[in-house]
From TrEMBL:
Record InterPro entries: P-loop_NTPase, Sulfotransferase_dom
Domain of life assignment: Eukaryota
Region listing for Disordered, in residue ranges: 1-28
Domain Sulfotransferase as annotated: residue spans: 36-85, 100-210
Pfam families for the chain: Sulfotransfer_1 (PF00685)
Record family assignment: Belongs to the sulfotransferase 1 family.
Stated name of the protein: Sulfotransferase
Source organism per UniProt: Panicum miliaceum (Proso millet)
Transmembrane segments: none
Molecular function via GO: sulfotransferase activity
The entry's keywords: Transferase
E.C. number(s) listed in UniProt: 2.8.2.-
Amino acid sequence: MATIHGEDGKASSRPEEEEVKKSPRTKKGEFVPRADDAILATFPKCGTTWLKALAFSITNRSRHMLAHHPLLTRHPQDTVPFLELPNRQIQPLAYGWKLNNAKVLFLGYEEMMSDLVKEVKRLAEILGAPFTNTEERDAAIDEVVRLCSFEHFTGLEVNSTGVADRIGGFPMENSTCFRRGKVGDWVNHLNPEMAQQLDSIVKEKLKGSGLTF
């Protein structure tokens, strides 16, 4: 896990981040993205692990046979390099996220649950790895969807019993990356008043982005 400095120059003081902060690539102003980099930006527990698996499967589909696919034995977090940049001063939607940006794709969890084949095709397009007509006829998209399905993932031994050292030396069970895989679970955690207040905040913060709920 990496950190990014705020406007006051202060960084997180959590001890597990000390080693990562020594890396020059994680220091503010020193990370230079490449033209073919893909950045996945989500809030926690919003399908992040699922999307990482889909992105890996799509972009590497010509390299791995499904019968021997890395996702069958490795957790999605281990196949997709990532940096987490926690900082409350960062605006969730800065200029680069504004409406009509062809390099930004908004994927909604509800839409993915409703028509995953359609969303996988959209994801493949923006990743620069669109499915060919032949692949579509051969059900390649369906295979990616099956491989990355919630039921398939949670049933794999690596995800149900595996443990990884992902956060500064603290063991983390792979199963914690998976919740219920259902739409509308928020009703078990928020009352109507809380939900209405959250909707108002989200509407205000996402104004002009093209992202709606």
